[in-house]
Write a structure and sequence with these properties.
The chain has three helices and five strands, in the order E-E-H-H-E-E-E-H. The chain has 100 residues and is an alpha+beta fold. It has a five-stranded mixed β-sheet, covered by helices on one side.
């Protein structure tokens, strides 16, 4: 096992994205990487207590242990519930078919 881990932290807004490479002590967790990345300080919309994180597209808890070359992803909150959006589209489609 290595003494240090090489990992990345990724976050994206519609207008900008961050990809920060880090070297962390072995045994570091996902939240350690986010804190060390400096992204929280640059993005006031992120609430450390409510972060949704993943590693290579798979959701993980903030305390999840990291492995060499992991990419920790910070997910933005959804603007709309996907189920509700689909329901609204289906309703709009029904109205269009009846009216046409």
């Amino acid at each position: 096992m290595t003494e240090r881990l090489s990992v990345e932290v990724a976050y994206a807004r519609p207008e900008r994205q961050w990809l920060v490479g880090l070297s962390l002590p072995s045994g570091a967790c996902a939240l350690d990487a986010v804190r060390a990345s400096g992204i929280l300080a640059q993005c006031p919309e992120l609430d450390e207590a409510a972060l949704k994180l993943g590693v290579f597209g798979k959701a993980v808890k903030p305390e999840a242990a990291l492995r060499e070359h992991d990419r920790v992803e910070i997910y933005r909150p959804l603007l709309a519930d996907p189920k509700e959006v689909r329901r609204q589209r289906a309703e709009a489609g029904k109205r269009t078919k009846k009216g046409g």
